[in-house]
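Morning F.,

Quick status update on the modeling queue. The single chain you submitted on Monday has been processed. Sequence for confirmation:
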Amino acid sequence: MNNLATQSDRRIVVLDGYVANSGDLSWEQLDGLGELKVYERTSPAQIVDRSRGAFAVFVNKVILDAETIALLPDLKFIGILATGYNNVDLAAARRAGITVCNVPDYSSASVAQTVFALLLAITNRTEAYTDSVARGEWTKCMDFSYRLSSIEELDGLTMAVYGLGNIGMRVAKIAHAFGMKVISATSKSADRLPDFIEKVSRDEMLSRADVLSLNAPLSDDNRHFICAETLALMKPSAILINTARGGLVDEHALADALRNGRLAAAGLDVLEHEPPHADCPVIGLPNCIITPHVAWQSTAARRRLLTVSADNLAAFISGHPQNVVD
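Structure tokens below.
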């Protein structure tokens, strides 16, 4: 087999395709580039056997480490069905002459939308009111309206955005449209920011935030950015929203703050362990709403993910690779 192979010789394998496409979308764009085999899920023990002889392998969360890559001499291309690529040993891929491509920015609109879905669910108590009406409480009410608890208005509140990348900037713009003041402890220079974003220090960001939205990638430097120390700087009335990575939050410290009135509420789409452990300390808290890492997976976002993934492989085959991770 030569470097790019002929279409009939190109074996393309998707190792964990279910989450990106459970059957409501099509793999036809990839299927047109070679002989395609899609597996819903692949265990570590199955990776090598399923990938052996493949020209291209696509993964979402499956780990392709140096040992695995060394056992796949025919592999020329690794496609990441995501933006993050920490599950692939890039140095090992580089040594083997394998091109690795990801899909940047495909879900930014979807994730930013989820930030406000979580926030509005907290501030407007939407689920609580819906459940109350379903129980017949409105039918029995003596007045045309009633109040379960206060509803917080976003206009005039301060939104702190931690991480001003593609998603964080969208969050900032939506917050501004709601009439919120937007602040950020960002590495970007103030003159590169829109006029409505105020650059502040980390501690000022935390202490001024009425809402803190986490939109930064996880690194060794910011693991457990939200911890007992940083939570102590925040207002007891503040709301935390995390749609980025679960590892940004010390869940035990967050649970303690939520239980003891040192933080008003949290909306989380990500947890440190996914699926979570049975003893996850934030699950079940009445002032913590949790969704199962769904912010990225609107139908439109997943369709973009599959389209760009196929485009990445087509561009590589044509000799002009795009979205190369290095």
